[in-house]
Amino acid sequence: MTKPDRLVVIGASAGGVPALIRLVGELPRDFRPPVLIVLHIGPHKSVLPQLLAERSGHDAAHARDGERLAPHTIRVAPPDHHLLVHDGTLVLNRGPREN
Q1: 82 or 44, which is more confident
Q2: Does residue 43 carry a pLDDT above 80?
Q3: Which of 52, 60, 64, 85 has the smallest count of CB within 10 Å of its CB?
Q4: Is a pLDDT exceeding 80 seen at residue 99?
Q5: Are 52 and 88 within 8 A, CB to CB?
Q6: CA-to-CA distance for 35 and 31, rounded, in angstroms?
Q7: Which region holds residue 53: left if phi is over 0, alpha if psi is between -120 and 50, else beta?
Q8: DSSP characters for 31-98?
Q9: H or E stretch including 19?
């Protein structure tokens, strides 16, 4: 796939989960740009991708290192990971803590 023209990037803290669920629930079924989400919850287990998939009907999952950006997808950074994009590919790391 070629790199997308558009990309939606969202960052939130744990208190932002209801807003994220509402936001993805409002996405049209034909919403094409990939959506990347980083939720600042530390090293705790996350079921956010499942919640977003149920609400949105889009393909939502935890991002995987080396995964290519794809249309109609929602990718969530795994807990305690940074999520970067390089040449249309997702890059995960555990760099220094950011506040």
Answers
A1: 82
A2: no
A3: 64
A4: no
A5: no
A6: 10
A7: alpha
A8: --S-EEEEEE--SS---HHHHHHHHH-SEEEE--TTPBP-TTEEEEPPTT-EEEEETTEEEEE--S--
A9: helix 17-25
